[in-house]
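Inverse folding, one chain.
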């Protein structure tokens, strides 16, 4: 049985669990002194620790060993997704994290009707951390917000493969079966993109792709494109 996993800001010989991780450990998982757990600091390493003491507002842990984690993808994939209504953005963040995405950006665009605020962004990062723990990753992708599509596109300018899924792409301008190197994947919100936004993406070096003849929901498109790219990169073997 896998040991329970917790994210901390910093690892030291005596590491303290506080805040939400403390509450989850004490009140939900009922962690007790003497239990062995795994601590994560986002560095890609796992730290085995023993719970020394469960206090009122913190749990004191003693780190006993560290090991490398082999669940991270060798190739970096960034997902840029339009903000979606309801809890659909959370679904995309959860599944993208499980699939191995390194970075997630959420953006607003012309036909985007959802909105973002600090609380929602904090919630998305929490979803990413919980998904990372569930799939045994040692690092969770940071979720960031861009107020415009252009800002999101520019954030990935240095990435080798820049892929833009859009209904205006009559055929794919890049062969998704032969991807090599890091990738940035762009998928819109429920309203899709305007032709002007598609041309903006192309002017910034993004290749338009189609995801088939059927109309996909925005959340399905994001998960499908991520899966296809990671499979092509050999990350799902």
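Residues assigned per position:
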């Amino acid at each position: 049985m896998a040991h329970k996993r917790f994210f901390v800001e910093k690892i030291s010989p005596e590491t303290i669990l506080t805040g939400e991780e403390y509450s989850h450990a004490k009140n939900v998982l009922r962690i007790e002194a003497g239990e062995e757990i795994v601590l994560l600091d986002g560095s890609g390493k796992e730290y085995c620790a023993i719970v020394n003491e469960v206090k009122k507002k913190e749990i004191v842990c003693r780190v006993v060993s560290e090991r490398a984690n082999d669940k991270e993808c060798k190739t970096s994939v960034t997902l840029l997704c339009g903000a979606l209504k309801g809890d659909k953005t959370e679904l995309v963040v959860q599944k993208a994290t499980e699939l191995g995405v390194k970075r997630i950006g959420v953006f607003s665009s012309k036909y985007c009707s959802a909105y973002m605020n600090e609380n929602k962004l904090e919630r998305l990062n929490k979803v990413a951390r919980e998904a990372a723990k569930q799939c045994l990753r040692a690092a969770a992708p940071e979720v960031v917000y861009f107020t415009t599509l252009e800002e999101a596109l520019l954030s990935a300018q240095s990435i080798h493969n820049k892929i833009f899924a859009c209904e205006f792409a009559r055929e794919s301008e890049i062969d998704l079966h032969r991807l090599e190197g890091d990738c940035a994947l762009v998928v819109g919100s429920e309203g899709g993109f305007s032709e002007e936004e598609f041309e903006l993406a192309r002017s910034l070096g993004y290749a338009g792709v189609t995801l088939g003849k059927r109309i996909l929901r925005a959340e399905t498109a994001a998960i499908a494109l991520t899966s296809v790219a990671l499979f092509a990169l050999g990350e799902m073997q």
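The chain is about 30% helix and 25% strand. The longest strand covers residues 45-54.
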